[in-house]
Amino acid sequence: MAFDDVRSDVLIAGGGPVGMTLAYSLALKGISVRVIENAPGCLEDMRASTFHPPTLEMMESLGLLDDLMAQGLKAPIYQYGNIGTDKFYSLDMTELEDKTPYPFRMQCEQYKLTRLIAAKLDAMPNAEVLFSHRVANFDEGANGVHVSVEGPFNIRLFHADYLVGADGGNSTVRKWLNVGFDGFTYPESFLTLSTDYPIEEHLPWLQQVNYVTDQPKWWVLLKVPGLWRVLVPQDADASDADVTSDERKDAVFAELLGTNEKVPTYHRTCYRVHQRVAKTFRRGRVMLAGDAAHLNNPLGGFGMNSGIHDAMNLSDKLCQIYLDNGDADALLDRYDRQRRTITREFVQKQTIANKHAFEDAVTAREAQMEKLLQDADARREYMLEQAMFKSLERAEAID
Ligand SMILES: Cc1cc2nc3c(=O)[nH]c(=O)nc-3n(C[C@H](O)[C@H](O)[C@H](O)COP(=O)(O)OP(=O)(O)OC[C@H]3O[C@@H](n4cnc5c(N)ncnc54)[C@H](O)[C@@H]3O)c2cc1C
Question: Which domains are present in the chain?
Answer without folding.
Answer: 7-50+60-72+109-182+275-360 (3.50.50.60)
